[in-house]
C-alpha cells in the first residue's frame, strides 16, 4: 500500500472516530494507535460496544491465518484495502466538480436495465428541465471523476442479473429559499429484480430497499456538498412490502446542516405509483473535507 493511501486511510479513521465520539461521549477514548492499525469496521464496533471491543481481544482465540478459508480477519486487517488503486491522488472535493462530471456523463445505456419502455416515472423526470439525470461518480487513477463500475447499488452492474436498477435526477431549479443548500433535493426511480428479493420470488429484501435509500441520500450530498461525504448514521422504516418488477419513486432532501457543514441531515422516502410511502429514512452524513479543513 502506498504511503499516501495509508495516510489518507488513517486520517479518515481519525475523523470517523471523532464523529462517533461526539455521538456517545460515554465511550472511553479510542487507543492512541488504533486508527493506524484498525479497520473502519473495528472503529465502528469499538464505539458500538461502548469501548468493550478490541481486535486483539476479539481474535485472541480460535482459528488464525490460513486455517480460516480466505484468511482470518486479523490477517486480512493487514491488507486494510483490497482496492488496487493505491496511487490515487487527491480528488476534486467540491460539489461543482462532481456535478460537472455527473451531468456530462448522464446515465449511460444499461444493457441489463429493468425498466420497460415509456415508464411514466422515468418519462416525467426526463421531460422536466429542472431535473438532471446522473450516475454515481468515483475518482480513477488519473484523479478524474468517472461513472462507477462494478457497484453494488449503482449503474448497469447493479441492474445485472435482475437485481437493482436505480436512476437518480438532481434538482437544479436554483438556490433554496434561505440561500444555503438546505432544501436541495434529488428524485429518482428504481425497480427491483428477482435477485433483490427475499427469495423465491417474494418481495424485495429489506436490505435492498435500504441500499437504494442510502445510495440516493449519499449521491444528493456528494452532488451538493462535495465528493467526500460518508454515511455515519441511518434510521430506516419499512412500511409495506416492496414488489419486484414495479417502479417506485425516490425522493431525498437535505433538511439540516451541522456547524460549518460538517454534518448533513437528509430525509428520503420510497413511494409506490399511488404515492404511498413504502419506506422512509433519516440519514446523517459527514463531510470529511469540511472536517479536515477545521483541523
From TrEMBL:
SUPFAM superfamilies (alphabetical): Thioesterase/thiol ester dehydrase-isomerase
The organism's place on the tree of life at top rank: Eukaryota
InterPro entries linked: HotDog_dom_sf
Official protein name in the record: Thioesterase domain-containing protein
Organism: Chloropicon primus
Amino acid at each position: 500500500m502506498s504511503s499516501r493511501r495509508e495516510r489518507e486511510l488513517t486520517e479518515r479513521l481519525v475523523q470517523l472516530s471523532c464523529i462517533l465520539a461526539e455521538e456517545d461521549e460515554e465511550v472511553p477514548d479510542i487507543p492512541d494507535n488504533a486508527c493506524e492499525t484498525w479497520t473502519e469496521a473495528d472503529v465502528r464496533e469499538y464505539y458500538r460496544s461502548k469501548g468493550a471491543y478490541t481486535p486483539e481481544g476479539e481474535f485472541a482465540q480460535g482459528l488464525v491465518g490460513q486455517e480460516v478459508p480466505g484468511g482470518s480477519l486479523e490477517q486480512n486487517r493487514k491488507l486494510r484495502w483490497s482496492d488496487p488503486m493505491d496511487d490515487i491522488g487527491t480528488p476534486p472535493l467540491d460539489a461543482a466538480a462532481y456535478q460537472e462530471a455527473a451531468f456530462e456523463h448522464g446515465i449511460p445505456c444499461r444493457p441489463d436495465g429493468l425498466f420497460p419502455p415509456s415508464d411514466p416515472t422515468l418519462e416525467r423526470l426526463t421531460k422536466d428541465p429542472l431535473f438532471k439525470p446522473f450516475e454515481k461518480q468515483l475518482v480513477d487513477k488519473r484523479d478524474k471523476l468517472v461513472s462507477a463500475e462494478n457497484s453494488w447499488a449503482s449503474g448497469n452492474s447493479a441492474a445485472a442479473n435482475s437485481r437493482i436498477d436505480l436512476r437518480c435526477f438532481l434538482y437544479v431549479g436554483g438556490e433554496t429559499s434561505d440561500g444555503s443548500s438546505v432544501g436541495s433535493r434529488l428524485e429518482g426511480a428504481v425497480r427491483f429484480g428477482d435477485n433483490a428479493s427475499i427469495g423465491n420470488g417474494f418481495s424485495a429484501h429489506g436490505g435492498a430497499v435500504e441500499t437504494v435509500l442510502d445510495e440516493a441520500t449519499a449521491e444528493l450530498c456528494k452532488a451538493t456538498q462535495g465528493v467526500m461525504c460518508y454515511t455515519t448514521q441511518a434510521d430506516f422504516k419499512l412500511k409495506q412490502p416492496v414488489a419486484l418488477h414495479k417502479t417506485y419513486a425516490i425522493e431525498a432532501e437535505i433538511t439540516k446542516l451541522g456547524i460549518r457543514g460538517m454534518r448533513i441531515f437528509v430525509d428520503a422516502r420510497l413511494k409506490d405509483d399511488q404515492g404511498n410511502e413504502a419506506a422512509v429514512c433519516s440519514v446523517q452524513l459527514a463531510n470529511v473535507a469540511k472536517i479536515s479543513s477545521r483541523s
